[in-house]
Amino acid sequence: MCIHVHIKVIPLGVGTSISDYVAEAIRTLRELGYSPLVESGETAVEVKDLKEVGEIVKHVNEKLARMGVGRVLTFVSIDYRTDKARSVEDKISIVRSKLK
Amino acid sequence: MCIHVHIKVIPLGVGTSISDYVAEAIRTLRELGYSPLVESGETAVEVKDLKEVGEIVKHVNEKLARMGVGRVLTFVSIDYRTDKARSVEDKISIVRSKLK
Amino acid sequence: MCIHVHIKVIPLGVGTSISDYVAEAIRTLRELGYSPLVESGETAVEVKDLKEVGEIVKHVNEKLARMGVGRVLTFVSIDYRTDKARSVEDKISIVRSKLK
Amino acid sequence: MCIHVHIKVIPLGVGTSISDYVAEAIRTLRELGYSPLVESGETAVEVKDLKEVGEIVKHVNEKLARMGVGRVLTFVSIDYRTDKARSVEDKISIVRSKLK
Predict the structure, then answer these.
(1) Burial label, A26 (beta-carbon count in 10 A; 0-12, 13-18, 19+)
(2) Is D85 on the interface with A (CB under 8 A)?
(3) Residue D38: which of B57, B13, A39, C95 has the closest Cα?
(4) Distance from CA of D9 to the nearest CA of C (A)
(5) Residue B71 belongs to a domain with what CATH number?
(6) Contact partners of D by the rule of 3+ C-beta pairs under 8 A?
(7) How far is CA D17 from the centre of its chain?
(8) Best of B9, B76, B83, B84 to mutate (most A CBs within 10 Å, chain A)
(9) Whole-prediction pTM value?
């Protein structure tokens, strides 16, 4: 079993540069005990239980609201697999090995 | 304040027709007490607390796993707004009125 | 064969209310000859050829840029099916009939 | 000006393991002349004109259809920025530097 969560946050009303908020969201993931993989369009974490998705979304959004963001759009994609165990890193290395 | 959640589930390993699983996911949302708005590519619900996103994702995915789906991809988009209160229906009617 | 395209545009740097821009994007789809289905989180159109996705994205984004938007995020999901022909409306009615 | 495109393909009807198809999609991006950045949940490319999104989507989907996939779901996110020029790599390094 494995659960991979990819998350992307988009704060509205703070201008066109949003990296301060993206960095704060990733910092929040670390504070929650995750080891986020920072990628160019989203950030990946592995969770043990699907309920954690709620905790993650709540902490990240409420942190951004406390920073003064009036509206946050969050995109979460969840890969829930009961047939095999794969890490997020496995996923990249499997595809990369097939590209050789 | 308002929180809109749009959810799309994609079961893998069950063939190209997935509407039975999509219907079961929506039924699960109803069992959890929501009044889902069924749209062509995703389903919308309003939640009171961001933590509910975890409950939703957990119940829907575990229901599909019990139906025998070995891998489920879920796409969730969350619109968390502290500056205004809008229903999901408001969102459509505001855009539609501007189109006239 | 059928190709369904769902599109969602998010203009950055224009504040937290974006419905004027969403309406303009939908107006652009109409000008291109499509009959967009306006839903709560995205807008659906049917296309005949996948290349049209490029035309759509280009016209919508460049229209928003001309309105002064410095950064536009666009989310497009494409359902390309060669095994069956379904309209966007079919998709909703199939799921709804299973919910009864 | 810069345009970043993130793409994720999900073939349906081929079982729960889809990495062969993901690899083929990335190979197609290379054949089209792009230098894709392979990440854990999606692949990033930079384009010069938004129309290229149509070419990319068409070539990738039609390649998968020729491999026998009856239905392909594609998720594309486009970051169209006229206010600044940033590479995909810049995006990651800006966020990472803020995390230190």
Answers:
(1) buried
(2) no
(3) A39
(4) 9
(5) 3.30.70.930
(6) A, B, C
(7) 19
(8) B76
(9) 0.97
Rounded to an integer, what distance in angstroms lies between the CA atom of residue C32 and that of residue C35?
A: 9
**Residue type at A80?**
Y
A65 in C contact zone (CB under 8 Å): no
Residues of chain D found within 8 Å of residue A42, distances taken between Cβ atoms? 6, 41-42
Mutate which of D7, D28, D59, D82 to test chain C, going by most C C-beta atoms within 10 A? Answer: D82
State the residue range of the domain holding A54.
2-99
Tens digit of pLDDT at every position of chain D (100 positions): 999 999 999 999 999 999 999 999 999 999 999 999 999 999 999 999 999 999 999 999 999 999 999 999 999 999 999 999 999 999 999 999 999 8
Flag whether residue B14 sits within 8 Å of chain C, measured between CB atoms.
Answer: no
Residue in this structure with the two tokens 């390309």, named with its chain if needed:
C80
Domain count, chain C: 1
What is the complex's ipTM, to 2 decimals?
A: 0.96
C35 token code pair: 């009959």
Strands (DSSP E) found in A1-100: 2-12, 37-38, 43-47, 71-81
CA angle in degrees (0–180, nearest 5) for C68-C70-C71? 130
CB contact at 8 A, D10 and B75: no
What size, in residues, is chain D?
Answer: 100
Instruction: Indicate the pLDDT class of residue B88, thresholds 50, 70 and 90.
Output: very high
pLDDT one-digit tens code per residue, A34-88: 999 999 999 999 999 999 999 999 999 999 999 999 999 999 999 999 999 999 9
| DSSP-assigned letters across all residues of D30-87 | HHTT---EE-SS-EEEEESSTTHHHHHHHHHHHHHHHTT-SEEEEEEEEEEESS----
- Cα–Cα distances (Å) from C73 to C22, C70, D80, in that order, read 12, 10, 6
C27 touches chain B (CB under 8 A): yes
Q: How many angstroms separate the CA atoms of C9 and C19, rounded?
A: 10
Rounded to an integer, what distance in angstroms lies between the CA atom of residue B84 and that of residue B70?
40
Closest CA to A80 of B21, B34, C10, C98: B21
